[in-house]
Amino acid sequence: MIKIEGLHFSYGDKRVLKEINLYLTRGDFIGIIGPNGSGKSTFLKTLSGYLPADKGVIYLDNYLLNKVSNEDLARIMAVVPQDTNVDYNFKVYDLIMMGRRPYQNRWGMVSEQDREIVSEVMEMTDTQGFSQENINKLSGGERQRVIIARALAQEPDILLLDEPTASLDINYQGEIFDLLAKLNRYRGITIILVSHDLNLSGQYCDRLILLKDGQVYKTGIPTEVLRSETIAEVYQSDVIIEENPFTGKPYLIMVPGGSKKKQWGKRSTITENTPKIHLICGGGSGRKMFSLLHNKGFQLSCGVLNIGDSDWETARRLNLKIAESPPFNPISKQSLEYNRQLMTEADIILLAETPFGHGNLDNLKLLLDLSDKTIILKGGRKFQERDFTGGEATLLWQELKRRPGCYLKNKTADILQLIEDLIKI
Ligand SMILES: Nc1ncnc2c1ncn2[C@@H]1O[C@H](COP(=O)(O)OP(=O)(O)OP(=O)(O)O)[C@@H](O)[C@H]1O
């Protein structure tokens, strides 16, 4: 185990790690995540003994980390740093062999066992192909694999890695994580890595440590840590968390433009006074609008939508108020009433370019009922092309267009501009 008690660390006057208390189990695959500057690399450096704590202690099993000799530490722990640049033009093979130093005598005599281990780790990391190349001639990704190979040549019990896949393409990212998972599962190596990739971390790690401003904000299994509320609080970014259908692990989808950091034209927090927009959509006609209006910080509602419809899915993920109705049935009275309530509460009702059949015609009728509301109609395609009611919907649409307070706009940008103008009035 690795036990961390009351750990503090500062660079000069700058306090970076504050009161970190953790108990890490040997054999786990642990991910350290957190926004830029939250202290992840610094934490990893204190764990490796590279940076001495200002206050607090780290135990490695029952030994104080700062009392373990460098030689012993090198046989227990190996580090893959963030910066893999190597000052000297070593040959790849020689550099990996350097990982065997803790096991060699003081003259650095290379044994048969050293050669076997180096050959094994080169195979694992797919680095044999350039064993005689100079390290600085390799691409960032190839160099990264060589540095991992050198760390593995140390035969460590614990492997610390700082963003090991940062410069790798998607193929090698997966391969490196697969390799780390194998080392963890079959060789019992404890993996502790810093990563910005929340999806890969959520996928592979047994446990995540989420840092914010140098403190542990949350720790636990990925499903406990990777929650949309938590990510919004720590990263100030809107994400949707889904379940990976292959693994059941969480994966994150960024809501486009979902950063809550200061942005042009964006309302920062929703209050009672935040304008409300109700969207009538369906079949994917509302998706783009949902995303754009959500990012502009409006309060959104929608309906009536069939349960399972793609717009219903999007609205559900964004946690919107939805008047919903089971599919393959006429809209229920209850859903219509709830839709009427949402429409009445809204400042603006927006009718997306959705097709109409007998199943959702009531949405149009309801619009005509609400005579005092501001309504924006998204035009573009000929309405007749999306009328599957034999003309009934077209009649309602024409009536709507004539109504005062009803605006017809063909382009999304014009709709957004109109909303901004109407809200200002
Ligand atoms: N050598 C240093 N001297 C002074 N300040 C430093 C030093 N290294 C890091 N810092 C500061 O400490 C804070 C934490 O940095 P650290 O690199 O540990 O964060 P991080 O979470 O790993 O960031 P990133 O995700 O950007 O790599 C930052 O504000 C950084 O500027």
From TrEMBL:
Pfam family, one: ABC_tran
InterPro entries for this protein: AAA+_ATPase, ABC_transporter-like_ATP-bd, ABC_transporter-like_CS, P-loop_NTPase
Keyword field contains Manganese: no
Residue ranges crossing the lipid bilayer per the database entry: none
ABC transporter domain sequence ranges: 2-238
GO terms, molecular function: ATP binding; ATP hydrolysis activity
UniProt KW keywords: ATP-binding, Nucleotide-binding, Translocase, Transport
PANTHER family listed in its UniProt record: HEMIN IMPORT ATP-BINDING PROTEIN HMUV
Protein name per the record: ATP-binding cassette domain-containing protein
Taxonomic lineage from the root: Bacteria, Bacillati, Bacillota, Clostridia, Halanaerobiales
